[in-house]
Amino acid sequence: MAGEIAGTPLIKLGLNRGRAVIDHIANVDFAILPPSEDRQGNWFDVLIVGAGSAGLGAADRCQQLGINYVVIDAQRPAQLIRNMTKGKPLLMEPPNEENQTRLFCEECSKEQLLEQWEKQIVELGIEPHIQCFETVTVCPMDVLSFDNNRNNTLFHKLTVNGQSL
Questions:
Q1: CA torsion, points 95, 97, 102, 107, in degrees to nearest 10?
Q2: What is d(CA 63, CA 52) in angstroms, rounded to the nearest whole number?
Q3: Is the peptide bond before 94 cis (omega within 30 degrees of 0)?
Q4: In the chain, what are the domain boundaries?
Q5: Closest by Cα among 115, 88, 93 to 104
Q6: pLDDT digit string, tens, across residues 42-93
Q7: Neighbouring residues of 152: CB distance < 8 A, sequence distance ≥ 6
Q8: d(CA 46, CA 158)
């Protein structure tokens, strides 16, 4: 867990923690159980829940490493930031930590940040991996079903750290 859900609602920390999670998956988890090349259907090596700063940082790292991933969110990317007051200045704390992602991360207004991220999500190839869903249903036999009014996607045996969710 990273970002808002982990209690660190700071943009730069969210970006970096999202990247760190993917680095861990790539360096530790995939060393134990490598991603499968022989799959049929819509299978992903990584499911990123949420398209906030941590989710986008994770997606950026997956894109860099060539990891097969999908980002799911109930709304649009960076919705928490979109909901902030118009013109809100965003501080990139803590000042002693460097942004380790390719996503824009400088002190600016919320509108400037969103404009940069919207361009980068497209330019970095992240956009096709983001899917917004209205409902998530847990089905029998360890299957999660997501309905986005366009199609249904199934994730079989979703596990995190070896535990089925």
A1: -10
A2: 16
A3: yes
A4: 3-37+48-131, 133-165
A5: 115
A6: 678 898 989 999 999 999 999 999 999 999 988 899 999 999 999 999 989 8
A7: 145, 146
A8: 9
Measured distance CA(62)–CA(106) in Å, rounded:
22
Q: pTM higher than 0.70, yes or no?
A: yes
The band of 132, judged by pLDDT with boundaries at 50, 70 and 90, is confident
pLDDT exceeds cutoff 70 at 147? no
The rounded distance, in Å, linking the Cα atoms of 43 and 45 is 7
Whole-Å CA distances, 29 to 15, 24, 107, 154: 20, 7, 35, 22
Q: Among 38, 62, 74, 44, which residue's Cα sits nearest to residue 155?
A: 44
Share of the chain above pLDDT 70, in %: 70
